[in-house]
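Suppose a colleague, Dr. K., hands you the sequence of a protein chain of 176 amino acids and asks what its three-dimensional shape might be. Before reaching for any lab equipment, you can write down a predicted structure in token form. Begin with the sequence itself:
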Amino acid sequence: MSARERQARAQAELVRALGVGAPVPPGFDEARVLAAAQSLMSKRRRGVERAWPLLASALGPDFAPRFEQWARSNPMSMEPDSRVEGRRFAQALRDEGRLPGDLSRDLLDFDASWRVTASGELVRRWGIVLIARRHDTTRRRQWALRLPGGRVLRWAPEPHPQGPMAPPGVDVPRGT
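The predicted structure, expressed as tokens, is then:
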């Protein structure tokens, strides 16, 4: 193996140690690498907290350990974007059935306005977009319609108490 190949391997091992908590490669100061890795993880977590404040507040004190656990198994993309990281984290929580129910609508709004490419790039949606999906906890349908110009109309029927304004069995759509 040439010197260039050995250096490339050492650099790749260092990147894994910094990004996902892999063992520190030989020849590097372990304490410094671990401190740098923790600093990078904190920076990544704070970025997601700023980009997705409702997600961070909904999870409360569980946000930091949950995010760090997820982040160790999901390395950053080449061009990290906190909005994409937060969306990926929220989707992982949703897939596990741990996403707080009130955040399902926020994901719907995000998906109506943005598209994440396969490479992890965030692209604004243009034109008319209609998205429909089931709410995570109520299992009711939700719809989001993005209009030209960026306005998003959202309908998420909720059960209402029966009264004179709502006939029995009728859900009144809510728009934003």
